[in-house]
Amino acid sequence: MKSTLKKLGYNRVHKQMNDVFLKYTAKVVFLVIITFSINLFFSGHYTPGGGFVGGLLAAGAIILLLLAYDLKTLNRMIRIDNKRMITAGLAACLIVPILLMFFGNPFFTHQHMYLQLPVFGEVPLHTAVLFDVGVYIIVAATTLLIITLLASEQFMSDSEGADRE
Amino acid sequence: MTLIHFAILLPVIAAAGIGILYRYYKKIHLGWFVLPIPTVITIYLFTLMPAVSNNQVVHETLDFMPRVGMNFDVYIDGLSLLFAILISGIGALVVLYSIGYLSQKEKLGNFYVYLLIFMTAMLGVVLNDNVLMLYLFWELTSISSFLLIAYWFNRERSIYGAQKSLLITMFGGFLMLGGFIALGQITDTYSIRGMMAQIPAVQESALAPLAIILILIGAFTKSAQFPFYIWLPDAMEAPTPVSAYLHSATMVKAGLYLVARFTPLFAFAELWVWSIIAAGLVTLVWAAFNAIKQDDLKAVLAFSTVSQLGLIMSLLGIGALAVQTGAAEQVFTIATVAAVFHLINHATFKGALFMIIGIVDHETGTRSLKKLGGLVTIMPISFTMTLIASLSMAGIPPFNGFLSKEMFLEAMFAIGQADFSVLADAAVLFPLLAIIGSIFTFIYSIMLIRGIFLGKKMPATPKTPKEAPALMLIAPAFLTLLVVVFGLFPNVLSGSIIDPAAMSILNISEPLNTEIHHWHGWDSPALWATVAIIAIGTLMYIFRDAWRPVYRLGSDAFTLNHLYDQGLIYSRLGAEKITDGYMSGYIRSYLIYIFGAFVIFSLITLINTDISFDWGTTAPIALPDLLIVLIILAAVAAILITRSRMVSIIMFSTIGFALSLLFVFFRSVDLALTQLAVEAITTALFLLAFFHLPKRSGNAEPRGFKLNNLMISAAVGIIATVIGLAAYSNRLFDSISQFYIDNVYDLAAGGNMVNVILVDFRSLDTLFETLVFAIAGLGVFVLLKLRVNKEGENKFEEHP
Amino acid sequence: MEILIIIVAGIMIGASVYLMLSKSLIRIIIGTGILSHGILLMLLTMGGLKRGGIPVLDDSVQQYSDPLPQAMLLTVIVITFALTAYMLVIAIRVYRELGTDNVEELKGVPREDD
């Protein structure tokens, strides 16, 4: 992939995107959004938020990086295969209800309990959160997969279009 | 989750591990890792046997979907235990045999994963009390059988056979599901036990005949009864271990299991009894008759399997008379015992025969009877085993096939004592058919021995024949040993396995105390029938050349296979014709069909129902709301007018962001958040996509075209508005939301109702929703990365 | 308010149908986007608007607005995104293979060997 990019005039685009200010801000904002996304995710059970919004925001944060840098740098910064992540997310979504079945509950009957911790006090533990983790991962990974694919296509079709004309 | 649930699911769980293992470790033949699984299950099932023999049952429930009555109810009585032991026991032998049969070069991972999935599916079928779960596992057996038949998927015949088996068994399975649902309607339960408790209700119900027919079609397709048997000979394209396992010993007996299982419920119906007996006998004779003309050894065995299945099926039918009549009970009970006994015997001798023919194929390279002969000196062990197994199949004493065959004949003679309402004169027909079928069985059994091992030695085999390695001989040798042991000491089985199974078929609790004898005295009609079968069979075999031309009488155009093929071709042609009729190829026409139908049907409904518009108190309109609504309308108008794609995408985003503001006003914060995030990403998506799309689409749209579109869209818009207003003002029932509001804390320990509904109350929906989302992502991947090269092959680009 | 929103939703649905019937692929995609927006609004309105507080448990709140449409619509929003992305990519692929984005020109011609 990387070699194809170079072949297809990747350097030219790279120069255009050399904006220090944007890059620096993007890094900071990325951290803010990711933190917010995780916060939204964990508070989702009690206040607005949850896996869908959290996942979308996480994807949005990474897309911001993609816009500020480029796909190659992004791939170097975050070495995650989105397709594997989709699989992992689906597995998380499926394993939770199946495991629940093994404990004598019908399929998809979530369980919850409260845990007394010394510092935090009463902390609720909930199997639905595990399911939500799967949702979060799937949403984030799929969105990223689509966007990065299109972004990588960008350079190729430029040259292909040139070939056609 | 109990041990027995785990035992059923163990193969499928192991399949996941086996698949991964095979990917990384190929030094040792994969079969050695698979072998312990069926072995352990067999041993575990044998530990249940003492309890089951004492007329106890094992009943364990695991809730799966209690609301729809679909639970993983394991119910083990004599019948299910017998089948389960057959499945796991033969499974272990087949796996052992396959280690020798399949070389390391084959795709072993696929083979064993499919085989293990099949094992779970089959155990699930026979150990389940819930018919819906039974159906689930039933179809899983069809699917795994399909995959296994198509194991050598480069061969055209394999694909054809796999498709045929899938079409026919799935067709039957689907009808069977209909039968189960009809039964569920009658009895209001999906548990077989629960249905048994309501036999009177079933007897009175008008739906019962329908249920009987549908369930019988399911059983007949699976057990390859006439006229559905045609898939089984074609299924022989599978590797021989699969044929021995699925298509002789286990899967094809699922239909027998089903019939046996439902016998107590349906035995009252004449329809049930006579259709089973008739189908069984016709299958027996027809398939045995056809077996003789085959040249391929596996085809001979396939037809022989079909005919033996017919034999057992007819016995089960006669056994049902025992439940029905009550009178002359002893006579018909023996039929059930014979059915169970022959089921076991068939698994032993036919399993052994399949494995030996696999060996012959493996060592000589051919399965054609014409090319084989005189192997007796080269393969003495295989010959001995074939001799024993074939003679048992032919019904020659002292092997086990003789005993069950004699019981079968006795049962057929006893049929005259049944209470015939319409068929009084036909009573003589049944033993006659049975004897004819047995004569053919005798002939092809002899043909097998003579054709492969005796006679002239054929030099033209593709490989130089030699005796098989010991590894491949163990499994058939074990089965042959069982043939002899069961033949000499049949009463080993009768108390421990046969009686409990027969008792569950007959639904009685008092012990049967069956004793199986070799000798019934000179006055036994079955004895003379056996003598006649052997005598006529020998004569016919000797003079076979004289009557063989009989096979050339029928034309190919009248065979069932021809019917199937033609049906397939014509249904495709018909579908093509219908499709071509309305599929113009223009997306616009399809959209016009859809929207036109929407408008027309909605109009008809709206005219025929008097709707009133009464919307009671509505929320007040605040100034910000109005402003946003105006923005949305302006943006929509701009999109309609503009021809610049940049303007339209900006306006489209405007609508999205405006909507998210509206959501805030409407107190739906979650929606607003999601809409905001999605809108941002969608905009980025459109901008990225614009790199690849033409800057300006210069597609002129003539005035008439536009006017047409305008009329359709105006009609749709107005109808949608009217429907919306009508739906809003007429509430048919209360909202179910109150349940979620009330229980959000108690049941789900959450505060945010929207999220709790998503991940807890309705998490199954969410699961599928995420699945759709993931599939869309993968679809995008495929669309962008899949290239068709010049040769027309699909090829993925190199992975980044 | 509800009536106004329903009418707006109806207008959006009508406009989306107009866009979907046009010849340009990109207008069709935008049309489906607007269609789903319109239906979103329509369905949300069915539960009543501005009735009570946001559906997050709070002791001081007596009445909540209907959470069920919101939950279902949340998934609608996400699926719409997937749908839009998928259709865009189809459009891209179509344009790359065939060199046109005019749906009238896309009608497949049966190949000789079929």
From TrEMBL, chain A:
Residues 22-144 form the Na+/H+ antiporter MnhB subunit-related protein domain. It is found in: Cell membrane. One of its GO terms (cellular component) is plasma membrane. The chain crosses the membrane at residues 21-42, 48-69, 90-108, 128-151. It is a multi-pass membrane protein. It comes from the Bacteria. Keywords: Cell membrane, Membrane, Transmembrane, Transmembrane helix. Belongs to the CPA3 antiporters (TC 2.A.63) subunit B family. NCBIfam families: PRK12573.1. This is Multisubunit sodium/proton antiporter, MrpB subunit (TC 2.A.63.1). The lineage of its organism: Bacteria, Bacillati, Bacillota, Bacilli, Bacillales.
TrEMBL record, chain B:
The chain crosses the membrane at residues 6-25, 32-52, 72-99, 111-127, 133-153, 165-186, 206-230, 242-260, 272-292, 299-322, 334-360, 372-396, 428-449, 470-489, 526-543, 590-609, 621-641, 648-666, 672-693, 705-728, 767-786. It holds the Pfam family Proton_antipo_M. Keywords: Antiport, Cell membrane, Hydrogen ion transport, Ion transport, Membrane, Sodium, Sodium transport, Transmembrane, Transmembrane helix, Transport. Belongs to the CPA3 antiporters (TC 2.A.63) subunit A family. Residues 707-785 form the MrpA C-terminal/MbhE domain. The keyword Ion transport applies. This is Multicomponent Na+:H+ antiporter subunit A. It comes from Lacicoccus alkaliphilus DSM 16010.
From TrEMBL, chain C:
It is a multi-pass membrane protein. This is Multicomponent Na+:H+ antiporter subunit C. It comes from Lacicoccus alkaliphilus DSM 16010. Keywords: Cell membrane, Membrane, Transmembrane, Transmembrane helix. The chain crosses the membrane at residues 6-21, 28-49, 69-92. GO terms for cellular component: plasma membrane. The keyword Transit peptide does not apply. It is found in: Cell membrane. Belongs to the CPA3 antiporters (TC 2.A.63) subunit C family.
